Amino acid sequence: MPFSHALRAFLGYVVLTVVMTWPFATHLRIMDPGDSAYFAWAIGWEVHALKTDPLALPHGNIFHPARYTIGMDEPILGTTLVVLPFALFTDDAVLLFNLARLLTFVLSGLGAYLLARELGAGGLASFVAGAAFAFSPIRTDQISHLSTLGSHWLPYVALFTIRFGRSGRGRDALWAGLSFVLAAYACGYHGIFGLLVLPAFALPLVWGRWASLPRAIPAVLVAAALLLPLRALHAVAFEAEGFSRPLDHAVFHSASLESFLATSSWNNVWGELTASFRTIGSNNLFPGLLVVLAVAAAGALLLRRRERPSREALAFFVMLGVGIVVCVGPEVRLFGETLFHGPYHYVRQSISMFQGVRVNSRAGIFLALALSGLLALALKRLALSPRALGLLLVGLLLEASVAPIPIPRWMQVIDSSQPAPAWVAWLAEQPGSFPIAHMPLLPTDGLFRRPHHEETVYMVWSTWHFKRLVNGNAGVEPVTYRHVREVCKRFPARPCLDALKELGTRYVLVHEKGWGPNQLARVQREWPGAAERLPLVKDFGGGDRVHELR
Questions:
Q1: Which domain holds residue 487?
Q2: Does residue 354 lie in a domain region?
């Protein structure tokens, strides 16, 4: 395939990404709190560590004095890689995050396009299949989660696995293995669920071609060796805190059967129509109607002609089926009622690795990928005219449309195009990487109570100065952090200051606007008793001050 074809497809997906995610392309320096801010911090820390001290990469500057903090949630290194070229020109973590978020759409589309070309689909049909994957309602449902958006390596796993099934060449198996490694580093959920889905996908491709399997062994060993650091990182981060996922968490975040009929509430076509199927805990997994109808039409054509489906079609159907089983999780449920244990229940019981998984419904990405591959094969079979393909593309995009995506003013907590707050600039000027604590240290619902002072916001601001934070936010919270958060509900009471001092905290940054009026009045009443231990270092105005902890 000429390079120019891939380049045209890439540029086409760039245009579609801007349109389908509008107005993100005009807000690349705007940050909202919560998950988005966490991933912005992760990219900022990883770029900083790779530039200055790669050995410090696992030990993000949060939850001081805990180590291996980058493993307490998704490291997203496989997505950070795609913005490293931009990091040569900017250290702005907000900008890099938003670029990464948009690039996952572009690169996911391009990967699925190349997969469709490998399957024999024409140029326009392949572009449609790539768009069906990149802009699937299953993906757009995860617009704030950079980890689950990080699906751009998965099409290459399928592509090179198909090539290996056809050729038996060890190099194709190696490329498939390396693609899987990158996919796992981009999203741990995709990696761990891929261990179940992808071997099942490969089985129809190698069936009866057993002689070629030994040539895949080096690829498997290389992939396993490259994934060991990721596995070890998560293990030490989780085990050091004695952390495990209760079964009820896994059940709550797995997909009820009605979730396969639900889309995001932002979806302009299906959002309101599928509201009754939308659940609280799981992702929404309705892939749209047109892609299913196109695949069904090709299947009906095969039946009428009494032709057998290809190995590739069978492989994608297996991927679809196993993906659904994993999404459903430990219990098969319908509208809140448990019907029976799902097959995944026995996997979770037998293999400890899967007991740390929380959101099974994130295996939905394999549904989107399988349907994209099946759509490519269907369009190859149906041989639609360019006009019909164009109409299909428009229909698929309309089904996935969530633009314009609302960005409420209260959620725009950081604008990196503007000068940083004075306290951020002051910290950046101070030499060394000493521990600091921001007060108030809000509880987990701080995102909704005081979004400008939520923990992830302090984390993003820390990418301007990279001092070590007692504060933090991640899927795993260290015991020391949970203790400090509890006792510091009564800041500046002595137990809070003692706990902060025990952690080696040098400065306490006070943000009065982070408290409500009643709590702020309490802090002001109790301040005289703590003033001796918290002498003022700098008052920045507006209620922001820095105090030294003695």
A1: 418-548
A2: yes
Please name which of 24, 23, 27, 31 lies closest in space to residue 420, comparing C-alpha atoms: 31
pTM: 0.95
Contact 342, 331 (CB under 8 A): yes
Tokens of 261: 């009929």
pLDDT at residue 244 greater than cutoff 80: no
Do 474 and 350 share a domain, yes or no?
no
Reported as a single tens digit per residue, the pLDDT across 432-461 is 999 999 999 988 766 667 888 999 999 999
Number of C-alpha atoms within 13 angstroms, CB side, residue 80?
23
The reply to whether 308 and 438 lie within a common domain is no
Domain count along the chain: 2
Q: Residue 334 is inside which H or E element, if any?
A: strand 331-334
Report the distance separating Cα 317 and Cα 295, nearest Å. Answer: 11
Instruction: Tell me if 413 is assigned to some domain.
Output: no
Reported as a single tens digit per residue, the pLDDT across 489-510 is: 999 999 999 999 999 999 999 9
User: Of 400, 429, 446, at which residue does a domain stop?
Assistant: 400
Q: Are 511 and 413 in contact (CB under 8 A)?
A: no
Whether 370 and 443 map to the same domain: the answer is no
- CA angle 220–198–283, rounded 5-degree value: 135
Q: Token digits for 346?
A: 């026995």
